[in-house]
Design brief:
Strand content: under 5%
Order of helices and strands: HHHHEEEHHHHHHHHHH
Number of domains: 1
Oligomer: single chain
Structural class: mainly alpha
Strand order of the largest sheet: 1-2-3
Largest sheet: 3 strands, antiparallel
Helix content: over 70%
Shape: globular
Number of strands: 3
Length: about 400
């Protein structure tokens, strides 16, 4: 069993190092992206705005990693704890998503009600229930597909309950956040496939899912406008094509090595959402193509480590959970970069650990902590314990 534990234990420090590198890069780029021409290049004015919040969120994220790792090690060791963990997290996510749809409780931003506003000493802070739902959906699917009473290859006893779960989360999120709904569908489908569901069952539901996505697309006129403008961004350069054009301009302006940190031009009123959804454009402008590939390399490293933890996991639940967490971060990063480079139509989805925002940083930090817990258990489980746990949960 030493061959199982050794590789996993050596991956854990690299996972933390990669996460810290992404967070640190995010802090630096948020500071640069939110700089203005009417203030001196000093950290003091920035401490009163987005930059200060980003530092606080990163600090909270580091605490969340530690707490999540310790909690995960306690929960994963017992099947009953795993059950209640999945039920509670799924229930909280569904309640939060429902609240975000209720008039008066949700806070509208950029044309959609994705936020629940929270009052703090730093002013109102928006919490996105969809971020919590990312984690909850993965935990619930991992528990459901690993349950001994569930046969994933059975259409009625395994596939349908899991598919309905994905559909519920997609429907609750899709009304206000089409990009995250697509992410849920992709991650959910991948977990169903890894969990043992038949490809024929997945194919049938995929057709229904595509039809459902088309309905969500038609629900909001701005979504169809984004799709139309994507086909020809120059048809309306001052309207729906403005943001994609400015994003490409920023990337092209950086060249291979960039204009230098803080020397970008597009962030000064030209590029919308420069510190959130389109921060990758600022990175490419100021650090060049080399800097962009460095960021992509960090995400690839994270994915590779996550998949190594997945293959070394000692129970089906932990294997599915590790895969789902890794796939979510990897797909979200890929979707954001695809939008920024105009490979796909614009969707409001952030770059994990780098874009400004607290909900995403804290939730993905919790995910890292759970991955660390899985890595720790597989690295320290005795040979007999591995055999017992596999037979107990499979």
């Amino acid at each position: 069993m030493e061959n199982i534990s050794q590789p996993t234990s050596s991956r854990a420090p690299w996972l933390i190092a990669t996460t810290i590198a992404l967070m640190s890069l995010g802090v630096v780029m948020v500071y640069s992206a939110t700089a203005s021409l009417d203030q001196k290049a000093s950290i003091i004015p920035a401490m009163e705005g987005v930059f200060c919040r980003q530092l606080i969120f990163v600090a909270l994220g580091i605490v969340a990693i530690a707490l999540s790792m310790l909690t995960g090690r306690f929960i994963f060791a017992n099947q009953a704890r795993r059950k209640w963990f999945a039920i509670i997290t799924a229930g909280l996510a569904i309640i939060a998503l429902a609240f975000a749809l209720l008039p008066g409780l949700a806070s509208e931003s950029r044309g959609s009600s994705r936020w629940i506003a929270l009052s703090t000493g730093l002013g109102p802070i928006g919490f996105q229930p969809s971020e919590l739902a990312k984690l909850s959906l993965i935990i619930w699917l991992a528990y459901l597909l690993a349950d001994r009473s569930v046969d994933a290859r059975s259409f009625s006893r395994g596939f349908i309950p899991a598919a309905i779960t994905v559909a519920v989360f997609v429907a609750l999120v899709g009304k206000e956040d089409f990009g995250t709904a697509c992410l849920f569908a992709l991650v959910g489908g991948a977990m169903l496939l890894l969990g043992g569901c038949r490809i024929t069952h997945l194919a049938v539901v995929a057709v229904i899912g595509i039809a459902g996505m088309f309905v969500l697309l038609k629900m909001e006129p701005y979504r169809m406008a984004r799709l139309t403008s994507y086909l020809d961004i120059w048809a309306d350069p001052q309207g729906n094509g403005y943001q994609p054009i400015q994003s490409l301009t920023a990337i092209a302006s950086g060249g291979w090595l960039g204009t230098g940190l803080g020397a970008g031009i597009q962030k000064f009123g030209y590029l919308p959402e420069r510190h959130t959804d389109f921060i990758f454009s600022v990175i490419c402008e100021e650090a060049g193509i080399v800097g962009g590939w460095f960021v992509i390399g960090l995400y690839c490293t994270f994915i590779w480590i996550g998949l190594r933890i997945t293959t070394a996991a000692i129970t089906p639940f932990e294997r599915l959970l590790a895969f789902g967490l890794t796939a979510t971060l990897g797909l979200q990063a890929a979707m954001n970069i695809a939008v920024v480079t105009v490979v796909t139509p614009t969707t409001g989805i952030s770059l994990p650990f780098i874009s400004a925002g607290g909900s995403g940083i804290v939730v993905f930090s919790l995910a890292v902590g759970l991955l660390m817990a899985i890595a720790h258990r597989s690295a320290h489980a005795p040979a007999m314990d591995v055999v017992v746990q596999e037979s107990d949960v499979a």
